[in-house]
Design goal:
Trp Operon Repressor, Chain A; 5-stranded parallel β-sheet
Length: 227
């Protein structure tokens, strides 16, 4: 899989991809992440990529020209399955969306900034808009990192245990059940006996019941989908 991230702050995104699971995924050749500096596509001497808002108002707007030049250059080299814009008013990122993205071959992620981007970019160049929550960040880089992490970990061969991602929260519209590890008892707090029983079927039943309970308590909106 190839992910090209267009940003005005590539340094902000270097660290997430140089550690842990994402680093191993790249080393295994399972994903290639490229950080592309949008300012390289500016024709302005000052490498300007933003300008004032037509009609007046506070804040600057990312210009269409450098964005179009960058995207068109990338598209001249390969075909992209999705061109994604990280935006607070985009579609909320959900597990099913991550599952879909993980099946794609090439994607572009455009990180928003300032007051936003020229609307014509959204109308004519973007294929999908994604938000990671109902709040506003200083820029789209953190949202891009979150989204890419959620996608890359799903790629076959990335996780040591291939079934691990399938049991994550939200894969079946349920929150994950409680998990425990050694020691079996700490400060008088004990691991549930069922988990020490060795009865796989009963353990799976217990886990499913706890998932239902936790989802009903913490995310009733998700629980409604299972009924």
């Amino acid at each position: 899989m190839r992910i090209d991230i267009i940003t005005i702050h590539p340094d902000l995104l270097e660290s997430p991809f140089k550690h842990s699971i994402l680093k191993r995924a790249a080393q295994k050749g399972l994903v290639e992440v490229n950080l592309i500096n949008l300012r390289d596509y500016s024709t302005n001497k000052q490498k300007q990529v933003d300008d004032y808002t037509f009609g007046g108002g506070a804040g600057m707007v990312m210009m269409i020209e450098p964005i179009a030049a960058c995207i068109n250059h990338l598209k001249s080299e390969r075909t992209y399955d999705e061109i994604i814009y990280t935006s607070p008013d985009g579609e909320l990122l959900q597990q099913k969306t991550c599952n879909h993205f993980s099946t794609l071959k090439n994607i572009i992620v455009l990180c928003g900034h300032y007051k936003g981007i020229d609307e014509r970019v959204r109308e004519y160049l973007i294929t999908k808009e994604i938000s990671i929550g109902d709040y506003v960040l200083s820029g789209g880089e953190l949202a891009a990192a979150v989204m890419c992490d959620s996608i890359i970990r799903l790629l076959p061969g990335v996780l040591n245990d291939e079934t691990s991602a399938l049991t994550d929260s939200f894969q079946d519209d349920l929150l994950a059940p409680p998990v425990y590890t050694r020691p079996q008892e700490f400060n008088g707090w004990k691991v549930p006996d069922i988990l020490m029983s060795g009865h796989t079927a009963e353990i799976e039943k217990w886990r499913h019941e706890r998932s239902l309970e936790r989802t009903q308590q913490r995310r009733p909106d998700l629980f409604k989908k299972t009924n």
